[in-house]
Specification:
Number of strands: 2
Mean pLDDT: 87
CATH architecture of one domain: Up-down Bundle
Length: 195
């Protein structure tokens, strides 16, 4: 068996099992992650560490999505939560619910990501984001959802919504494919978290 593989393959009782052992990260990669996120590498990064060039690209990409965007962090967290809910990604949900709270989202708004995106409990920007994320997850951003984005966001913000939603969907798929879980992670540390 490849030394990157864990003895815990498959799933038990419907719970994802880790498919890869955690890779020891190069000292500079570990230091960069700690500097960016203010915490030790999360389990996803410890699995991606089997391919250091992918880990480095992932880290810098996430840094840009987190710190280089104009869209308010709370709105971006709605995207991640909607994607996590739609794709049943418990790991993504756990990481991002803590970040959403830190970004100022109320429990009510967090729960709203699980429901109807046309809810009157949401404002126009939030509804547009949830609709767009749903469409992107399904592989088709409709003209109606696109028009809703255009009505409330600048062109640059629309690109940020579309790219962030696409990334969130990819994130859930990577998480499922590698079988990452929160086992052994400090849930309090997820408030800083890393995508």
């Amino acid at each position: 068996m490849n030394d990157a593989m864990s003895d815990h393959q498959g799933s038990a009782a419907g719970h994802e099992m880790r498919r890869f052992a955690y890779a020891p990260l190069a000292e500079d990669d570990d230091a960069r992650i700690r500097a960016l996120w203010g915490r030790p590498p999360i389990n996803l990064y410890r699995i991606l560490g089997h391919q250091p060039s992918i880990l480095r690209a992932w880290t810098e990409w996430n840094n840009e999505l987190r710190h280089g965007c104009e869209l308010p962090r709370a709105l971006r967290e709605l995207i991640f939560l909607r994607s996590a809910h739609l794709q049943a990604s418990a790991y993504e949900w756990t990481q991002h619910v803590a970040m959403a709270r830190k970004a100022g989202l109320t429990e009510h708004k967090i729960e709203a990501t699980k429901g109807d995106p046309s809810s009157s409990d949401l404002d126009d920007r939030e509804r547009a984001i949830l609709r767009a994320t749903s469409g992107i997850k399904d592989g088709h951003l409709s003209d109606v959802a696109f028009a809703a984005l255009r009505a409330v966001f600048s062109a640059g913000e629309m690109i940020e919504v579309i790219v962030t939603a696409s990334h969130a969907c990819m994130l859930a798929r990577v998480i499922q494919a590698v079988g990452v879980s929160t086992a052994g992670e400090d849930p309090a540390a997820a408030r800083e978290g890393a995508d």
